[in-house]
């Protein structure tokens, strides 16, 4: 057995990074490392820390899910496989199963090194690149575990059961996922305006807090030139919709308040919808500036469609105002029979969404 740092072997990195591989920090859902190895045995050296929400990770071998486990505190060696045919090349992916935890500034997962009794082969880059931006749905919350589960813990997040990962697997694409449970376009589910994805999009992982994440480069400007997607799918709006039914948010420190309101008849307040639509248009402009060659597709529907007409109208207005015909809205199926735990889309619902997106891309 020989230990290799990542700079010593051919590999592919999936997900946004800080540009460093010694060690490789896995910030986002479905971020990870891919290698081809001709060996009978492979181990990975991981480093993990957290105070509230432990990271989970999983292994794929030759394109199939193989195992999943919770990371241990500190540095550990974990066996990926052993006793396999030493002459056969295995494609291996080591994937972060859980989202970036904005509520836990101590949460981190890193790949430090690999150990094997064999040799590494080159890994072909993917021709198709897909970026997914979203909330708990795109983080895979509730897509694993029994329907009765209600605990908000990292164990019930799974990248493997995620529609984004499934779509990438079906199309042999390189994917990136940027998502955070509870967050939205203009605010989080509870009307907190600081729980919005667009303001942090241009940083490596701008929603993370604490000095540790800052030192790891989470707040560095993302290098968009290094990785340009062919499609950007924006699955945001579910939490904004929910915020219209929540009380006003108030910051106890400075008195700041925010609320999306409903009228007495239950309809959305027109001024609040107009403000939300402006944020949709502004975010599409940011996405176009950062990803000039990508098709921008706003998707919604896996967990309700009440806000879909307003978002679709905003996308159409963006097209009309900018002349950008490579932006559109796509409705997804709310697969109610396949709900998972925490009343979120389950693995079956993610399969439904992945099939719809795969068909959409193949039809282009």
Automatic annotation (TrEMBL):
<dbReference type="Pfam" id="PF13472">
    <property type="entry name" value="Lipase_GDSL_2"/>
</dbReference>
<dbReference type="InterPro" id="IPR013830">
    <property type="entry name" value="SGNH_hydro"/>
</dbReference>
<keyword id="KW-0378">Hydrolase</keyword>
<protein>
    <submittedName>
        <fullName>SGNH/GDSL hydrolase family protein</fullName>
    </submittedName>
</protein>
<dbReference type="InterPro" id="IPR036514">
    <property type="entry name" value="SGNH_hydro_sf"/>
</dbReference>
<feature type="domain" description="SGNH hydrolase-type esterase">
    <location>
        <begin position="132"/>
        <end position="326"/>
    </location>
</feature>
<dbReference type="GO" id="GO:0016787">
    <property type="term" value="F:hydrolase activity"/>
</dbReference>
<dbReference type="InterPro" id="IPR052762">
    <property type="entry name" value="PCW_deacetylase/CE"/>
</dbReference>
<dbReference type="InterPro" id="IPR037461">
    <property type="entry name" value="CtCE2-like_dom"/>
</dbReference>
């Amino acid at each position: 057995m020989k230990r290799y740092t990542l700079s010593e072997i051919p590999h592919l990195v999936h997900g946004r990074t800080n540009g460093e591989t010694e060690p490789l920090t896995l910030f986002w859902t479905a971020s990870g490392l891919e290698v081809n190895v001709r060996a009978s045995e492979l181990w990975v050296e991981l480093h993990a820390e957290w105070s509230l929400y432990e990271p989970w990770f999983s292994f794929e071998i030759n394109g199939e899910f193989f195992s999943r486990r919770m990371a241990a505190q500190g540095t550990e060696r974990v066996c990926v496989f052993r006793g396999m045919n030493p002459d056969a090349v295995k494609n291996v992916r080591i994937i972060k199963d859980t989202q970036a935890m904005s509520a836990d500034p101590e949460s981190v997962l890193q790949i430090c090194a690999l150990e094997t009794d064999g040799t590494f082969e080159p890994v072909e880059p993917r021709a198709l690149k897909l970026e997914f931006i979203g909330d708990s749905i795109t983080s895979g919350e509730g897509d694993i575990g029994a329907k009765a589960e209600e605990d908000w813990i990292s164990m019930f997040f799974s990248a493997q059961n995620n529609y984004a990962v499934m779509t990438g697997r079906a199309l042999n694409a390189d994917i990136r996922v940027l998502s955070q449970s509870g967050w939205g376009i203009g605010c989080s589910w509870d009307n907190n305006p600081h729980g919005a994805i667009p303001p942090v999009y241009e940083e490596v992982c701008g929603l993370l807090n604490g000095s540790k994440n800052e030192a790891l480069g989470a707040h560095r400007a993302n290098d968009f030139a290094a990785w340009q997607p062919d499609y950007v799918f924006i699955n945001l709006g579910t939490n904004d919709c929910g915020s219209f039914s929540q009380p006003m948010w108030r910051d106890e420190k400075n008195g700041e308040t925010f609320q999306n309101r409903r009228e007495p008849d239950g309809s959305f307040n027109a001024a609040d919808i107009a403000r939300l639509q402006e944020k949709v248009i502004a975010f599409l402009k940011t996405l176009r500036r950062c990803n000039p060659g990508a098709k921008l597709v706003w998707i919604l529907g896996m967990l309700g469609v009440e806000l879909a007409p307003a978002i679709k109208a905003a996308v159409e207005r963006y097209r009309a105002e900018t002349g950008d015909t490579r932006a559109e809205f796509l409705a997804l199926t709310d697969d109610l029979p396949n709900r998972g735990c925490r009343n979120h889309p389950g693995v079956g619902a993610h399969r439904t969404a992945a099939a719809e997106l795969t068909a959409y891309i193949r039809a282009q």
